[in-house]
What we know:
By secondary structure, the chain is α/β, with parallel strands linked by helices. 34% of the residues lie in helices and 19% in strands. The strands form four sheets. Strands 3-2-1-4-5-6-10 form a seven-stranded parallel beta sheet, with helices on both faces. A two-stranded parallel ribbon has the order 7-9. Strands 8-11 form a two-stranded parallel ribbon. β1 (2-6), α1 (11-22) and β2 form a beta-alpha-beta unit. The mean pLDDT is 94.
Amino acid sequence: MNIFIIGGTGFLGRHVTRLLNEQGHRLTLFHRHPSDLFAATITQFHGHRESLDDLKRAFDATQPDLIVDTCAMLERYISVLDQAVHGTKTRLVLLSSIDVYKAYEVIAKLSDTTIQPLPLTETSSLRDMFFPYRGKLETDYAHDYDKILVEKAAFSSEHFETTVVRLGMVYGEHDPNRRFGETVRKMKENAASIFLPKSLAGWRGSKIYVGNAAHGIAMISERKDMIGETFNLAEEHPLTEKEWTEAIARLMEWHGTIRLEESDSISMNTLSINPMQDFIADSSKFRSLGYREPISFEEGLRRTIEWESKQMSN
C-alpha cells in the first residue's frame, strides 16, 4: 500500500513508520524538520502542515492510497489537508485522544459537570467545553487544540474516508511528556522514599505502550472495513497510579517505600486534575476485531524504563 504519514518521525509516528515499513508498505513521511530516521529507505518531504503548497507538492509526487495523520492537533490542519488532496477520495486514519470525552471535562476542572459513568465507550458523552488546554499549557498548539473539532472536520469532509483512533495516554521510548521520568530518576538514584498524593494513589487513567499503539494503528491501516468507524485504543486493565509506581519498582528492583501524603493540589504532567473522576476507556470494540497487544505489559514498561534511564545519562 502507498501510505503518507504526517508526523512519521515523532513520538508515536516513528513507531508507526517502523512497523509499516517492516510490513512492506511504500511510505512517504511529511514532517517539519530534517531527520536522519529512515533517511536511507523512505521518501521524506519537509514542510509545514499549514502550508497548502507544501502538502500539495508532497501529495502530487506520491498519490497515496492512505494518509495516517499522527499529529492533527488543530481543526484548521484538517482544512488544509482537505484542500491538498484536491478532489481525490483518500482514506484517512486520524489519531485522536480520549480527552474528547466529557469525563476529561471533569478531570481537568473545566466545568462543574458531575462525575461521568465508566468505562468510556465510543458512544460516551463528549466534552461540552472546547479547547481543554487553553491557558493551561505553554505549547505552540495548546490555545487552539481540540480533537473533537479535528474529528468532526475529518468526518465531514467529502474527500476523506476516515477512521478515528482515540488513544489512551501513550507512554514509551521518546515520550515527550516523560510520564514516568521522575519516578525512574528517583529509583535510579536509590531514593529511600517516593511520595504520592493520597487522593491520586488510587486514580486510574487508561494508558497504552507506544509499540502496542503502533500495532493497532497498523492493523487499522490495512483494513478498509473500518472506514467511518471510531475506536478507543488503550490497555485492557488500567492500573492505579500507586500500582504503576509499584510495577516500576519491581522492574528496577527498588526497595524503598512508597509514602502517601495529603495534598491540596493534585497535578499530573503539570496539569491540575480532579482525582475523583477516573479516566478508563473501553477498547473492547477494537479488540473484538482481533486486536491483541504483541508486546507484554512488563516488556513495554521495561523498554520505557531503559529509555528514561538513558536520558538521565545524556
